[in-house]
Structures are given as structure tokens and as C-alpha cells.
Amino acid sequence: MILGASTFVEGVDNAFMLILGISFFFLIGITLTIILFIYRYNEKRNPKATPVKDSVTLEVTWTVIPIILVLGMFYYGYVGWIPMKRPPSEGVMVTANARMWSFNFRYENGRVSDKLYVPKDTAVIVNLNALDVLHSFYIPAFRIKEDMVPGLANNRSWFEATKVGSYTIFCAEYCGLQHSYMLSEVVVMEQEDFWNWYNDPDAMVEEIPEDANLALLGRQLVQAKGCVACHSLDGSNLVGPSFAGRFGETITVITGGQEREIEYNEEYITRSIYEPDADISVGFRPGQMLSYEGEITEQEIELIVEFMKSLSEE
Ligand SMILES: [Cu+2]
Asked: Is 261 exposed, middle or buried (0-12, 13-18, 19+ CB in 10 A)?
């Protein structure tokens, strides 16, 4: 049936199928009755309308049956929903940070990742943290969706994955221009694999081979990190200045209210990524870009720099 990979799937799908089934039954039933009445009571067949007298039996029937049906829908909806609201106290704790327009996940041991890696058959408690505007944490395969509200403390979601694999995480709250690109992945691993990954900070960092194309790795990085939502690669300005044609140029920035000339070099790029509001490029607004401190390593910045260099050489 529909792809499902968490312990909530059954509860949600039961409620859904029940409601769908009842709706479908009435859709067919009402449509058939309308057709039958059109045929039976048209003017030719039934020239004189007969008023219907009140019927207690009929009224009781059409009151009691629908009440039973809606209570049934409520019951299945409620028992499917309640476990989602009761996260266990033990489990893997992760903080999901949402910003325009990407997610990242921070684990208790300080590990940060663009994808949400989780062990199978283990409760994962996700602390939902919106850094800028409203977002929503939505994993259809797990049947969970929870709004992420800036400033709201103790906003949590949880799940227990039941199948190894990768599933899409969507942002389900319209959060600006590139909202539709705001997605990530949850990767469910066997418990042993997960703990190996968790305890080995280098496990997921690919060794960069000596003859690797650093500029290409940098390009993949700015795409994966969601930078391209605000920075174009073709010279046009979006929310922020383009990455193209800037490296090595002398640009004008505003630092503490004062305009000054500065060289667009590795140092400037590093500062722009860790303290975006320190220097503001003329023509752009402060407060749009959030710091990537702790999220992008210095080694990764080198790759981004190589990529920007290559954009200026073209
Ligand atoms: Cu969003």
C-alpha cells in the first residue's frame, strides 16, 4: 500500500481509510439515490407531488447512524493521534533547525548533519526549532507533521522508524520564495550502523582524493546547504549577491554603518558565512542570512572558495 515506515502508520492509515470508506459509501449511495429519484419522480411518471408526513423512525435513524459514524471517525483519529503527542522520555534526541530554506539536525554529542540519520526501532525525539519564520516538519512516510514556530520552546515531535531506507522530509508551511526546495531526507539505519556513524565524526565525511575537483565539491556543497536559494551562480542578484564574478574584486560593504572598500577574498567569505551581518554588501539587507557557525567547517569553506574562484575565471 502507501509507503509507510514508522509505528504511527497504522493508526493514521486506519483513521484515513475509515473516513475515506464512509465518504465513498455516501458518495456512491447519494449519487445513486439522486439518479433513482430523477427517474422515478419526474413529471411524467409522478405528475402530482405527495407531501411526506413526519416520520419519527426516519428521523431517529438519520440522527443515530451519523452520530455513530462520526464518533467512529473520532475514535480512530484520536487513538492514532494520541501516541504522537506523548513522546517517550528515553530515546535519541535531535534538534531540527529550520531556516529559509533548509534543514539541519544537531545531535546531543554535537554532531550536525544536513540529513536526519536515525536508528531503526528506536524512539527519536526531535526538538523543533525555527530560526527565522514559520516552517513545518513533515515526514509523510512516518505520518508526522508538526509546525515549527520561531521562539516556541519545547516544541517536539517524535517517531520510531520501522524500516531501513531513505524518506523525504518536507517543509509543509509556505516560508517564502524557495519554500518548494526546502526538503531533506531521513535515513533509517540498522542500530549498529547508526551508532557507528554517531560515534565517529569522520564516518560520513568523505576523504577528499588528491586529484579531486575542489570547485565541483564546492558547488555541490552550496547546493546541498541551500545557499543557492539566495545566491545565484549566474551573476543575477536574488535575496543576496551572486556568487559569480565577485572573487578577487574590490567591493563596497557597510561595516557598522560606515561604507568601506574591501577585497572579496577567502577571509571575507569566511566572515560572511560565520558573521553575515558584520559586513553588508551595498544594496542588500542585513538580517537575511543567518550564521553557519558550527554547521559549515573551515575545510568546507575552502571548497566554497575554490568554487567561487572558478566562477570568476569563467
Ligand atoms: Cu520552510
From this structure: exposed
Pairing between strand 112-113 and 165-171? unpaired
Q: What is the DSSP letter of 148?
A: E
How many CB atoms within 10 Å of residue 195?
Answer: 14
CA 101 – CA 289 distance, rounded (Å): 11
In eight-state DSSP terms, residue 2 is: -
Q: Who surrounds ion ligand 1 at CB < 5 A?
A: 135, 171, 175, 182
Q: What is the pLDDT of residues 197-208, one digit of tens each?
A: 888 866 656 567
- Measure 31 CA to ligand 1 centroid, in angstroms: 41
Separation between Cα atoms, residue 19 and residue 13, nearest integer Å? 10
Give 12-44 pLDDT, tens digit per residue. Answer: 999 999 999 999 999 999 999 999 999 999 988
Distance in Å, CA 271 to ligand 1 centroid: 25
CATH code for the part of the protein at 214-313 = 1.10.760.10
Domain locations in the chain as residue ranges: 9-85, 92-199, 214-313
- What contacts 294, CB < 8 A, 6 or more positions away? 112
Is 0.85 topped by the overall pTM? no
Q: How many helices (H) and strands (E) does the chain have?
A: 6, 13
CA distance 29 to 257: 71
DSSP annotation of 239 reads: S
* CATH fold group of domain 9-85: Helix Hairpins (1.10.287)
